Amino acid sequence: MAAKVLRPWVATTIFSRLWRLLMGGCCIALFSLGALLMSLVWFNLLLIIQRDASKRRRLARRCISASFRLFLGTARLLGVLDYRIDGIAALQNDHGCLVVANHPTLIDYVLLASVMPDVDCLVKADLLHHFFFRGVIRAADYLVNSQGKTLVATCRQRLLNGDTIMIFPEGTRTRHGSAPILKRGAANIAVRCGCDLRVVHIHCSEQVLNKESRWYQTTPTKPFFTVSVRERISISSFMTKEEDTQPIAVRHLNRFLQQALTPELL
């Protein structure tokens, strides 16, 4: 009797995993092909259509955001994943601040940028050599972590212009079951630029697209991504007037972010 009850459930589970495997591969192909076509065709057309660099950058970022919404909507429609973003209005109303998030999966940036049409982002220099994404990074004029001594000055200018900069302080994806290990880049920029921070926490119900998994490894149930937009942190509570106390403020802020971005289950 138990076997008869289990058979439909087992068949459904196997079919679901096979379907998500096939459709997941299609979504990855769609994402990569879309990035390539935007880099080779659309962004080159923008160079001709829009001569003003700032307007061209804004238009490129809005196109990227729209393409991410299309990708996520397609993945949801095909049953590959589902997601919820709590606090979208807060993200969209933020200006001149850093958005600081944990980094459990490959699509964390996609989730956030999909609802932030004009967000800036600090990216790894290695991505400039990525065949599919280097054109996207250049068109959007994202900040690159290899800019060295000019990075803080560039961040300060963009923040003064009202830009919101997205940063994943870990620099790479979190290992499952481990607390995030933060580099001091985000705290250093916030302190030296004197800007506020918006904390965002990302959680995935399944172990997919993380440091230890591959895209073709499916889980028994469909992954559900939850993005929680949390408090805006005033940098003034970490600052003092003395210039030589900035390194102390950076350490204190980084320690605070470490606690804010660590999952409650750890």
Short précis:
It comes from Sodalis ligni. By secondary structure, the chain is α/β, with parallel strands linked by helices. The protein has helices at 2-49, 53-77, 88-93, 108-113, 134-140, 150-160, 185-193, 246-261, and strands spanning 82-86, 98-101, 120-123, 143-144, 165-167, 197-204, 224-233.
Structure description:
This is 1-acyl-sn-glycerol-3-phosphate acyltransferase. Keywords: Acyltransferase, Membrane, Transferase, Transmembrane, Transmembrane helix. One of its GO terms (biological process) is phosphatidic acid biosynthetic process. One of its GO terms (molecular function) is 1-acylglycerol-3-phosphate O-acyltransferase activity. Pathway: Lipid metabolism. With about 270 residues, this protein is an alpha/beta fold. The protein has one domain (about 1-260). Helix content is about 50%, strand content about 15%. It has eight helices and seven strands. The protein has helices at about 1-50, 55-75, 90-95, 110-115, 135-140, 150-160, 185-195, 245-260; strands at about 80-85, 100, 120-125, 145, 165, 195-205, 225-235. A seven-stranded mixed beta sheet has the order 1-7-6-2-5-3-4, with helices on both faces. β3, α5 (about 135-140) and β4 form a beta-alpha-beta unit. α1 (about 1-50) packs across α5 and α6 crosses α7 (about 185-195). The chain is globular.
